[in-house]
Amino acid sequence: RLVRGMQSPTPMPTDDELPTMTLMICAYNEQDVVKEKMQNTRALDYPKDKFRVMWVTDGSNDRTNELLKEYPEVDIVFSPERRGKTAALKHGLKEVKTQYVAFTDANTMINSGAMKEIARLFMDKSVGCVSGEKRVAARKEGELAAEGEGLYWRYESTLKKWDSELYSAMGAAGELFAVRMSCYKEAPSNALLDDFMISMLILQKGYRIAYTADAFAVENGSANMEEESKRKRRIAAGGLQSCWWLKGMMNPFRNPVVAFQFVSHRVLRWTITP
Description:
Number of helices: 8
Order of helices and strands: EHEHEHEEHEHEHEHH
Strand order of the largest sheet: 3-2-1-4-7-6-8-5
Radius of gyration: 18 Å
Helix content: 25-40%
Distance between the termini: 32 Å
Low-confidence stretches: none
Structural class: alpha/beta
Mean pLDDT: 90
């Protein structure tokens, strides 16, 4: 099956049918957001006996770990050495015991029904990764960098929705995505876009990346144009790196639909107009 076409939506599973899930938060010196993030996490609608919360705080030397000890449901994974987010993800994944793991950032807030919506999409055995929607909020009115970033992500979300309806989304954003642990594959340790590579390696193995706007993460946009420019340059460099690593997916004889989606949505954007 190369094109999904119109299908009936998967019904929401009952609490008894829901799988075990870990929410992993990689954080470096995030003491200022621990309280708000944990309030948000505790408000998530998911059976407590099937849900784990893990903070990976490698290299943190502020009060992050101290503050997290006030929350008995949190598993703290810590190493004093800071080796970057990709290494932190790998460190945390070694400790995961659940069927699925969802990734998010410390400074993003998730809607209460996100975990159940992600679990619903995983009921389809062809789905190996679920991408939630990223939403950008301006810190104050008239903040051009944030407003422009928000407009870009609305455009990007529309493309992901169409990609997912055709066959598969082309990658996931690190603000909120989840993977089926049985088909997870490590991204290269020097990956600039670790979230994108993790999701695309799952697609490369023959699973789909499902996209949903009903599981979303909200974060503040860039404070100014300089900050946003720096972030976009990193994404452009990571995009070129990823295109080279995933060049085999451009072969139309392997999967013509994936090749078309990957070339049109990712390769052309990142090589011709980064």
